[in-house]
Design goal:
Elements: E1 10-15, H1 21-30, E2 43-45, E3 51-56, H2 61-67, E4 72-76, H3 77-83, E5 89-92, E6 98-105, E7 120-123, H4 126-135, E8 141-144, E9 160-165, H5 169-173, E10 176-185, E11 187-191, H6 199-205
Parallel strand pairs: 1-3, 1-4, 7-8, 7-9
Antiparallel strand pairs: 2-3, 4-11, 5-11, 6-9, 6-10
Bound molecules: phosphoribosyl ATP (PRT) and zinc ion.
């Protein structure tokens, strides 16, 4: 598909599918934006404003917004922090709330952060984990995997995990106990540092400026 670049249109990057998709759509429609039903398209034009939605993997949203390809994005603070991208936050959106924690099997000797010394920790958040470990003077090896970290201790790929927790039921199902918190997170509306004059139109439209 050939996408024509129309600089006067605003682009808002949101998660294509997953935990933040519906709440992101609901936020935009609650501010008056109307969208047609979408089956497969990765770019969805707004029906009543010069705005296009970009449907992306959440991990890609910070880079799209940083580079200015998207003017705005809705993404979890955890993802922005892991990518190490500085983006101005316009509004905290009060959904997608979760925590990044370290957890270990309940029968393990790992009960506190210092017990992680020399251990293997599986995570999809290697940068945030690495920062936490160095800030606490702990040397441990990071096992980087892309998801389902909770299974790694029982398969002996790791001694502990560093992952997102919301209700705690996944930890419980794998007999894992939280050792410490690394960060709290929620979805945020971020704007690109690349200025566009028309950006203010969107912000006043959604009553944010
Ligand atoms: O496909 P794409 O890359 O876009 O999506 P994804 O699979 O990477 O992310 P997705 O849809 O799972 O989550 C998107 C964002 O939602 C995350 O980056 C967080 O900001 C936020 N969020 C809120 C969560 C959770 N709650 C959550 N519970 N992200 C993940 N989880 C997972 C967690 O990884 C663990 O496996 O849910 C499990 C734990 O949940 P509880 O309720 O059992 O504790
Ligand atoms: Zn992702």
């Amino acid at each position: 598909m050939h996408i024509i670049y129309e600089p006067e249109r605003q682009r808002i990057a949101i998660q294509k599918s997953g935990r933040l998709h519906k709440a992101s759509m609901d936020f935009l429609t609650s501010r008056g934006l109307k969208f047609p039903p979408n089956e497969r398209s990765l770019i969805l034009p707004c029906e009543n404003y010069d705005i296009d939605l970009l449907y992306l993997r959440d991990d890609d949203i910070p880079e799209y917004v940083r580079s200015g390809v998207a003017d705005f994005g809705i993404v979890g603070e955890n993802v922005i922090a892991e990518k190490g991208v500085e983006l101005p936050v316009i509004e905290k959106l009060d959904f997608g709330r979760c925590r990044l924690v370290i957890a270990a099997p309940s029968d393990s000797r790992i009960k506190a952060p210092k017990d992680l010394e020399g251990k293997r920790i599986a995570t999809s958040y290697p940068k945030l984990l690495s920062k936490f470990l160095s800030a606490n003077g702990i040397e441990a090896s990071i096992v980087q995997i892309s998801g389902s970290t909770e299974i790694t201790p029982e398969l002996d790929l790791a001694d502990a995990i560093c992952d997102i927790v919301q209700t705690g039921s996944t930890l419980k199902a794998h007999d894992l106990v939280q050792i410490c918190d690394i960060m709290e997170s929620q979805a945020v509306l971020v704007e690109s540092p690349q200025k566009k004059i028309t950006k203010d139109r969107f912000l006043s439209l959604v009553n944010l400026r």
